[in-house]
Amino acid sequence: MTSVNVKLLYHYVITNLFNLCFFPLTAIVAGKASRLTIDDLHHSYYSSLQHNLITIASLFAFTVFGSVLYIVTRPKPVYLVEYSCYLPPTHCRSSISKVMDIFYQVRKADPSRNGTCDDSSWLDFLRKIQERSGLGDETHGPEGLLQVPPKKTFAAAREETEQVIIGALKNLFENTKVNPKEIGILVVNSSMFNPTPSLSAMVVNTFKLRSNVRSFNLGGMGCSAGVIAIDLAKDMLHVHKNTYALVVSTENITYNIYAGDNRSMMVSNCLFRVGGAAILLSNKPRDRRRSKYELVHTVRTHTGADDKSFQCVQQGDDENGKTGVSLSKDITDVAGRTVKKNIATLGPLILPLSEKLLFFVTFMGKKLFKDKIKHYYVPDFKLAIDHFCIHAGGRAVIDVLEKNLGLAPIDVEASRSTLHRFGNTSSSSIWYELAYIEAKGRMKKGNKVWQIALGSGFKCNSAVWVALSNVKASTNSPWEHCIGRYPVNIDSDSAKSEVRVQNGRS
């Protein structure tokens, strides 16, 4: 018998321990009860009632009171009715060669360079990053940057964000037939672009939401802000009854593209692309029948107290005064540590008893025998989770989480495919991944899906959902016309593109 079979047998025995013990005990009790007569039962019942009347009455009253208290105070379920991922128009598609040309044009248009880009070493650096990024040739760039010369203006940035948000919301309202005036809670998150009036105010104005809507605008919280927005909406739905919550997650590329020479700031140019998602949540009991998922858990972890974690993703000026976002070499290590802390909180909530027991035994063993046991037991999350949506922040991040969680290639297929097709769309990437799983027809009733989002600060946030039915792909899904081409064969270590760049041109 292999180790895999032994573990599966152990898991089955521990998981069904109650049933394995209950049925023999039931048979013993039934055998003894069959030998009792009606007079024996009547005498036993009457005697117990006569001598323990106050105790029985007290227990009954306590049970009724506890049941009523539980029903009244328990949090109401939060349902995910529908969501919509924005699919940019085809003329915004940006192949790797096109992206390299954008970088060239942006630098050429920089007034401080006087229209010249003599040093080609930065092109070689960006080309290598692009080739290893895991992004394909069908990602999307913003319309402003696709023009020649590129429009890197506030107006162009606002136009990009409005197109994404309004496009996602129009499709969401069309699919759900929900009147925007029914929305009671609105949460919008955009880390790097936060104009005045706010983006949440723009949504209120565009869709004419009611005047007493409770709106929130989250900024500067990085790629993990999507789950933070869900968690905030969940808390609001627990307070405000019988209403809808609308969550919008996006990021802006136009206003934040970097045109300087600092290589740690150039990396983000290669990864981020246009995208966004709109999510409709409800606490109305009648919406359960038409909803896709129910929210089971949200867990948020923040390691910003550690300087290395706080500084690994940071916006600032380079030595020439150009603003960009620097990614340190420590980001994968920081991400791994932060994820482990998040898992330490989430694990006890979702793991079966068999995995909790194994972890506890190794934990105590490591405390007692520090030299002999080098590592804690890594729980098998696939015993509790059916699908994984790991933030498509980059190939290295996906590789680290795949290794640390002991996942198989199919478990990170949605993340790699999303990175290849849409790039890093920041906080909305986990929704493109969920849409991928649905488009593949893999989401069945009762399946649990774990969304893992990572972001600056440094933060790791998790959301666990359970499917309420066999979930089909939504109308106008972003994968509607390309799902048959995925997954693509990408070497997780070093995929190479055939793109070659000379003199800034592809």
Describe this structure in words.
- The chain has 506 residues and is an alpha+beta fold.
- The chain contains 17 helices and 13 strands.
- The protein has helices spanning 3-15, 17-33, 38-51, 53-73, 96-108, 121-132, 143-146, 154-176, 199-207, 225-239, 263-271, 307-311, 331-350, 353-368, 395-404, 413-422, 429-439; strands at residues 79-85, 93-94, 139-140, 183-190, 214-218, 244-250, 276-282, 293-302, 313-317, 323-327, 387-390, 448-455, 459-467.
- A hairpin with a 5-residue loop joins strand 9 (313-317) and strand 10 (323-327).
- Helix 6 (121-132) packs across helix 11, helix 13 (331-350) crosses helix 15 and helix 16 (413-422) packs across helix 17.
- It is globular.
Approximately what portion of the residues adopt beta-strand conformation?
15-25%
Determine the number of helices (DSSP H or I, runs of at least 4 residues): 17
Shape: globular
Structural class: alpha+beta
Low-confidence stretches: 492-506
How far apart are the termini? 57 Å
**What's the average pLDDT?**
86
Order of helices and strands: HHHHEEHHEHHEHEHEHEEHEEHHEHHHEE
Radius of gyration: 27 Å
What does the largest sheet look like? 9 strands, mixed
Secondary structure tally: strands: 13
Relative helix content? 40-55%
Q: Order the strands across the largest sheet as they lie in space.
A: 5-4-6-7-1-8-13-12-11
